[in-house]
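HUMAN:
Just now I want nothing more than another pair of eyes on a protein record. I would be glad if you read both lines and explained how they fit together. I have put the entry right below:
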Amino acid sequence: MRKNSLLKSIRGKITFFTAALTITLTVLAVTICFYAFHSYQKKMMIRSSEFNLQSIADNTSADLNNILSFVKWCCSSSDVAEYMDTIHGQGTLGQISSKNPRVAQMAFDTYDRIWEEYTLHNQSNYIRRLILSSDNPLAYMQMFYSSVPDRADAASLIASQDFFIPLYEASSFQWDGLVQNPFNRISDEFIIPVVRPIYSGESSQTTGWLYVEISPELITSRLKAYPLESDSLLYLTIGEKNYLCDKGTLTESPFEYQQVSDLTGSTISTSSKAMEAILPGLGKRTVLTCSLGISDFQLTEVLSVRRDRAQQTLYTCMIAGILFAALSFGVVLMYFLNRTIVKPVHQLRQNMDSISRGNFDKNPDIEWENELGEIGKGINDLSENVVNLMNTRIEQERQKKDLEYQILQSQINPHFLYNTLNSVKWMATIQGATGIADMMTVLARLLKNVSKRSESMITLKEELELAGDYFQIQQYRYGSSISIRYEIASEDLFGCMVHRFSLQPLIENALFHGLEPKRAPGTISVFASSAGSGETKDLVLSVTDDGIGMSQETIEKIISGESLEGSDFFKHIGISNVNNRIKYDFGDSYGITITSEPGVYTTMTIRIPYIRKEEGVEKQT
């Protein structure tokens, strides 16, 4: 039971949610940081290795392109082409020279020209051997050969190798990887062979071929110094062959893998490719491949996992420290929240209990300089508003009683007046004063409505009849200089309920404040219409005169009741009282509004709810 009450309390909820939020955010932050760091670490490791590989690749590519430019020159030189055209289709060089002594000189000149071009290329020292041969393998020229003994059938030996035909017939440079040196079968000496056709200078016919041996040291000399972790692997791919690089030694080895995910987005260069792959015997590893910038040449590194694990271990320790610090912060935060929230909430609860017992005194001690203080201020304001509301309600009840008393005062002895007026009427009739008799009849009818009817609301039709009787009396005073007209939007409106004697003060105001000061004929217009629909439907009554109009100050005095110039008969039943009666019964959204333009018109509008006679009877009962 105590456990449940603790969880329901503010302190328990703060403790629980703060602890849960701290642990959740900490675990979430640690997880995000761990994976972000791991991703960043892997990206940096990939880019670091890529930079090293790309550095070797760029230098190696530059050296290899230097040699290939020399090969291209040999294949396109006009001197070489002329020499090859001369010996094309002939026998050996000795036979050709005996027939044409000039050929020997051309051979020396071609040799010198090739040598001259050879010395101009910086990386020519990696060229072990060059053979320039016609279609007849016996007519060839050999240069730069190493310490390996020369052979008389060197051109025939090269032409018989397995790599010769594919390289010779290729449309551009093609690579067959590292091959055993054809001239050295004793030791494991490998070379990179290059074979290109020589075309006639006069036609597209081939007149011979060029063979160049490139030393693998062009590549291995740089791979020796490459920083490689003990559990990393480095592969060189030439064509379709893969070679494992170990301390500058290249050993042909298959490189099989199954790609798991693509990490190319972690690389800097678009020519580089990174991936997660599963390697036989190694498991899941990160593989980085960089192109040497030459077709079919690329370097591939299987990145170290030891360095990755060491950095992850370090970061795990850092994460543990962060987690401990976050949890410590959570404990301090819980203590702080309990001190700064629980106590003020307890004070607020005590103050609200005091209010519920009827004590509405303002308590400044709960108005702190924070959000809870704003709540405390709101509670104090609420207490003050409740007190003001009660005082206002008391004042309204007092005013209502005063209004009822004033209405009661205005009802002079109607029976006595009614009988007296009947006597005056018959005397006027006997004496032939028909005007006086008619006026007494109308006045008696008004008194009859006052004396024999007690309900506060009547139908619009009945109210219009009362207003008509009042206006008829005034016509005897003003004569034909005033007139009234009625415009009712629908006959259904006649059955709507209105306050008794609500139109008379408006017509009286139109006469006294509008038409009488005008000193000219005038008209009063009474309009009735409905507005809205359903539960929001209202009855709108308006009285408009074409008199002198009134100022805004006068309008405010009439609405506020400062100007109570009612007639003697309807004393104190003025516009202000009608407005107050409407607001008391229906609320502040209803009542009387006045609009006027001095010298043109004045319009007084009554807005009350649309209530039919049946509904009004039910409401009053």
In short: The two ends are 54 Å apart (CA to CA).
